[in-house]
Amino acid sequence: MAVSLTPGTWTLDGSHTEIGMTVRHAGISKVRAQFDEATGTLKVAEDGTADVNTVVRAESFNSNSPDRDAHVRGEDFLDAENYPELTFVANGIEPTGEVFDLTGELTIRGVSKSVTFEAEFGGEAVDPFGATRAGFSASSVISRKEFGLNWNAALEAGGVLVGDKVTLDLEVAFVHQGE
After folding, report:
1. Using CA atoms, how far apart are residues 47 and 143, in angstroms rounded to an integer?
2. What are φ and ψ of residue 145, in 5° steps?
3. By CB count within 10 A, which of 47, 62, 69, 117 is most buried?
4. Distance between CA 108 and CA 78 in Å, rounded?
């Protein structure tokens, strides 16, 4: 089944969206976190192709550990004061089925790299309040070092405190705004 969305502009529904990440900690466990503030648009053309533009507030990083959150928001990692936004822009998406690749430019800390997410279309439906909604799940693994997030600490037993690979997991909802 091909993804078929109503043409027009869709806006990201922040209250029904989760932008999560997971990274290996101390070589033995994984730490999960999310970004609590994001905005975005999905523009669907009559031919079914689409563009996505998303902005995530670096200051909204949340791992439920205030000390860790301050460290990640600081100069060693996101440097939210100087780079307040993480962005993702994908142009000319042509989904071929319910599961498809979503490729675009991810920018973190002023560094842009092409990233491909494995995406899944959850469907389109009208909610009880009359709004037309669409949902997607997407996942990708990036190297944090490729984005200039190089801070680390050596462990006494060998290895490092923070792994390089970061898994990005997205559960996103969009609301149709019309043409």
Report:
1. 34
2. -65, -30
3. 117
4. 7
**What span, in angstroms and rounded, lies between the C-alpha atoms of 44 and 59?**
30
Query: Phi, psi at residue 27, to the nearest 5°?
Result: 75, 0
pLDDT score of 155 = 57
**pTM beyond 0.85, yes or no:** yes
Residue percentage of the chain with pLDDT more than 90: 58
- Per-residue pLDDT tens for 113-168? 999 999 998 889 998 999 999 999 999 999 888 898 776 556 566 665 667 788 99
What is the spatial distance between Cα 83 and Cα 177, in angstroms, rounded to a whole number? 30
List, in order, residues 6 or more apart from 151 with CB less than 8 Å away.
76, 77, 162
Q: What mean pLDDT value characterizes the chain?
A: 87
DSSP per-residue string spanning 52-109: EEEEEEGGGEE-S-HHHHHHHHSTTTT-TTT--EEEEEEEEE---SSEEEEEEEEEET
CB count in 10 Å sphere of residue 142: 18
User: Domains, the chain, ranges and CATH?
Assistant: 8-178 (2.40.128.110)
Q: Is 69 exposed, middle or buried (0-12, 13-18, 19+ CB in 10 A)?
A: middle
